[in-house]
Amino acid sequence: MSSTNPASGLPATSTTKNNAIWVRETRFGRWFLSTQTWYRYVLSQAVIDFKTLLGERVPTQGHILDAGCGQGLAFGLLEQHFQPATITGIDIDAEQVKKAVSAASQLTTPALAVHTNASASNLTAGSFDLILCHQLLHHTSQQQETLQEFYRLLRPGGILLVGESCRSFINSAPVRLLFRHPEMAQKDARGYIDLVRTNGFVFSETDIQTSRPWWSRRCLGMAQKLGIGLNNTEPTEILIVATKPH
Ligand SMILES: C[S@@+](CC[C@H](N)C(=O)[O-])C[C@H]1O[C@@H](n2cnc3c(N)ncnc32)[C@H](O)[C@@H]1O
């Protein structure tokens, strides 16, 4: 099953970067998100790392929500690694949703893609076992509302996977030049941990992974190879496996 929600009434795009619900990614950014570099080194790696963090908690035959699914690149990975009963993708960008509808139709798992705002969807409360939120939060100023919505959508005991790029990376010169994000919405790793925890989710230190992958380092890691910036250990990426308590 594949469908969009044409009656969502969402803003086509935002005109300001300050406190915007949504700032449309640049043309370059939208292209980059469709590359093998993104798919292989960022998205696939995140799903594999989430699976490792989950350990024996990996749900099978669950109902999965991919929040901020973009063009649905994660659908196949979710199908492969989690064998879900259903996959639902949501995104605020109608153009991306069209591509996600097509990606959903390629799966053997029943899947659909819906045009809606992750912070105020019309999806049914408690209807998901697992939510993947990969690289969405730094794109919205409504982070608090988005976490509350995830809490509403998960069943008790359901799992939220948050994968984010931290402020130090998003505010770096190349990223600012090539991509577009709402101002002031990005957090450091501790900020994302606090955001998820203060919205009712539980997790321990072993449910968190921070890293500085090569693609997020100055000059793609060349600075480190040349001995420049060796002391910088601030994480650029964070993964959190959080649970909605029973
Ligand atoms: C960096 S992309 C990540 C796409 C996908 N999760 C991936 O990892 O390939 C961020 C996505 O979040 C979407 N997005 C931003 N704000 C949103 C919101 N409030 N509700 C739903 N989607 C949103 C954007 O349209 C974009 O497709």
Automatic annotation (TrEMBL):
The keyword Translocase does not apply. Keywords: Methyltransferase, S-adenosyl-L-methionine, Transferase. The keyword Transferase applies. GO terms for molecular function: methyltransferase activity. It comes from the Bacteria. InterPro entries: Methyltransf_11, SAM-dependent_MTases_sf. One of its GO terms (biological process) is methylation. Residues 65-162 form the Methyltransferase type domain. This is SAM-dependent methyltransferase. The lineage of its organism: Bacteria, Pseudomonadati, Pseudomonadota, Gammaproteobacteria, Cellvibrionales.
